[in-house]
Design a protein that fits this description.
Length: 149
């Protein structure tokens, strides 16, 4: 992990965010609304550091295909696998937050990293996990205590 890099800043200000929202409709506001048919792509086994601003609307990429990670750029439209962006308005204080990059975090974590990537065997998802792994049972269940690196 390289802390010298500047955090990603969401490009969600003003009318640009509204144009993006209109382009990508529909969106989901909770991941249990997704009806997926395939595993999400994992752009990174970890998180993105993002400067979050209170009151700003963000569109978190759930499919993993966006070139604008961790935010959606509409790439899911080319696929027919049930993914849609997770729309949310950040209500915390302005600060750098860890936003999930593996796409395997608990549903209750929303777009934020909860270190679930440490529990996933990414090398062969189909052999090691059922697609139901991306379900409420997995994501809402308790995570074991994980040692910090």
């Amino acid at each position: 992990m390289n802390f010298a890099k500047k955090p990603v800043v969401g490009n969600t200000e003003g009318s640009a965010a509204q144009r993006l929202a209109n382009k990508m409709r529909p969106v989901v506001t909770h991941r249990d609304q997704l009806e997926i048919t395939d595993w999400p792509y994992t752009p990174k086994k970890g998180s993105y550091k993002v400067l979050m601003k209170p009151g700003e609307m963000y569109f978190w990429c759930t499919c993993g295909l966006s070139v604008n990670q961790p935010f959606c750029d509409g790439s899911h439209v080319k696929q027919d696998n049930g993914y849609k962006p997770l729309a949310f308005t950040y209500d915390g204080p302005e600060k750098v937050r860890s936003v999930c990059a593996c796409k395997m975090n608990k549903y209750s974590s929303g777009p934020f990293c909860d270190r679930s990537h440490r529990l996933v065997e990414f090398d062969d998802m189909d052999a090691n996990h059922e697609l139901g792994f991306n379900s409420k049972e997995w994501f809402e269940g308790p995570l074991p205590d994980l040692p910090k690196k």
